[in-house]
């Protein structure tokens, strides 16, 4: 239901409503919750038991309730202003949030403290309010467990604890409250399984347990809740199949199981629940086909969410009979065949079937679009990444002109002209026709769409020019026109696009001067890519107005003249690419003032003079390309002091003199100098001649000898050099564009903006007392920020820009984090790229604070609350199994649910963080690699082969041999991690010498002597397992079985040959199975 929606509308479910994921946004404050969800049941006749007289076990009933309330207040760690009236001098029935019964004087019947700013735990004394019918403590900061004494509240009807930080399991005491109508415990940190006794509440109407950390399977007993109308279990870690018993819930209206690990097929009885309004099972591992008659018995169905599963077969035409449907989301499945034209007779507001295998080769396959033109409510139509071919029907221009806002057709096989009728869709905000085979001229009618915010036509075969009418699109924020055959000059009317933040026009045939108006667009803050065109004339000084731009690429054009000094005003630039033009003159020393620059590429120009000494000031610069120019003089010694510089290419210039020996010059793979014949000295590996110390005559003679040698081998040498040049240009070219594009996607309006000053203040000036960790590229501090007017604890990762690779690590991590969202991946809040108080470059990423810090500290006896090394209670077996499942799920997501896949490259205990409930989140994506997309273009890194990526001991052996980064490398690291978690020994332990590894150590002991090498802390912390074999309880066998299974899995993940390792999806499924088997036997083990 919607926040603020009339109760009558909730009950009827009939009127057409705008799109919203109802199960993702439940109204949680007491008043809306009661009015919208609970009120219909409050107004039902009071149960007989409520009308009966209550005989209190206490001699003074009034004092009992008052004392219980005061004890509740006393359990709070800080006093809330809402409880000011709670004192001993006033009548407690008039206290804020307290309602007393009219029938039973002085007895509390309702306690409503929603959004009251409560901090602390819930006092067990709450169980003394034995006349309580409504208990609403939602939207506070309550912690701890739900007290078992709540089971005394046998009259309780409404229990609402949503939006707190409660942890632990759902208390068994609650099973006594059999009169409950609503149980709302969502948005907490509850763990454990869903109790089967929840199926024994005969009056239950709403069960909302979403957004917790619940595990195990869905109890079949929930099928006994015959009055149930709302079942929200989404965003947990539930696994197993959907019980067929849920098909007995004949009154169910809202069914949400999304974002779990559910597998198997959806029972047909569940599909056939005719009372359902919202059906959401997306983001699971479900498979199977949809019933062909599904829509025949669905008079109430409005919302269908099946995305991100493995459903196959055809989309059933019978869905057309479910005439109330408002939203259909079938994306990221394996549906095949044609889209039934009957679907077009529905009137959904959202229709999406992205990333399937839906086909269309003739106009019959496109008939569903034509029929959708009768739908006046359609707002979103998206069918990207399918197998749709042929021409886009002209009827697309007849879709809803009043409501359609989004039209996505990209990544199909559509050809022909773009229908000019699209210009009729006057409210269209996002139009993406990218990566098809559209040809002809972009219809002029497109430029009438004044509500347009994003226009994507890249990757087609469009021709013609961009007319001045593009200036009509004044709300445009993103325009991608690259990889077409567009030509002509850019119109000056582009200056009207005052909200433009991304413009990619590369790989076309644009010509003429670049209009200075485009450089005056101060809104350009992410990407401006004009590369691979025919622009000419000098680069205008107005380029310095792009003070917010992160990425600028004008390479491979015909620009000439000097580089303007105003470039130094572009203080936000991370990458500047001006290579392969005709720039001349000297290198402006002002470029050295671009302190945030990470990549500078000026290759293939006619630049002359010396390399400025001032370039050494660019402390964050990591890649500098100056090859194929006319530079002369000596290499500035200041360049060797640039600790971040990892790539320097000065090939084919006229440089001479001594080559420095430190910094980038100490790495033969990072320093390219071929074609500078008068360089000398440097490291021995460079094979340069020693710098001369003889007379001038001797020097002249030596030059002549060298010249003769060069001339005699010139032809062959030139061929080799041309090939080398081509190789390096191909290798370096795409890298910067794609890397910046990935990082830029992170800098979106949905992320709050924070300044250096806010971070400085929130961390007490990056005080040592706030320091909670150090890594290879920086330090992490605990801090407090005001986010949405709420003081929030955060972790701030500050990058050490003096460290080589740190700036790139920042870009890569931002890019990776912008693409991912998973409950077991560290939650990023925002990032900051600016200057500190001394105008030094500053980069930081702000994360959700994880109070239990890293797994490494728990495995190796460090107190998470301080830097002092001292023993702490160890992790139990169940905690370790849970953490292993969390990590496996996160890696499975990165490998199999991200497009393209992401390789973490540095999985180890110190990069695994634990929240208050010991739920694990994988962090530190500083050296992650996003694998190539379907066309082979690298998304972040263009390096196909690499040296050692990661940390010694955890890194896959093939990386040490220069092997290719792959998913198998992460699997190896995961296997090592498992072995460390259960043996307590790090792979770098001093005992591993003379070829012995952690894997070999475990393999020798497996399986008979495995328990002899297991972490003794694990055994001592588990109540069912004593240190000595003769003291083992009945649970010892189950512990041995679990540890043996984990070790077997770990060893299969650490095979030396990558192809022999399990894929991450199989490893994750196996880990969940191991945990389930252990949990299933816990009751027997504890008897």
Automatic annotation (TrEMBL):
Chain segments annotated as transmembrane: 705-728
Subcellular location: Cell membrane
EC nos: 2.7.11.1
Catalytic activity: L-seryl-[protein] + ATP = O-phospho-L-seryl-[protein] + ADP + H(+); L-threonyl-[protein] + ATP = O-phospho-L-threonyl-[protein] + ADP + H(+)
GO cellular component: plasma membrane
The keyword Ion transport is annotated on this UniProt entry: no
Protein kinase domain residues: 766-1079
GO terms, molecular function: ATP binding; protein serine/threonine kinase activity
Bilayer topology: Single-pass membrane protein
Protein name: non-specific serine/threonine protein kinase
Pfam families, sorted: LRR_1, LRR_14, LRR_8, LRRNT_2, PK_Tyr_Ser-Thr
Keywords from the named record: ATP-binding, Cell membrane, Glycoprotein, Kinase, Leucine-rich repeat, Membrane, Nucleotide-binding, Phosphoprotein, Receptor, Repeat, Serine/threonine-protein kinase, Signal, Transferase, Transmembrane, Transmembrane helix
GO BP annotation list: post-embryonic development
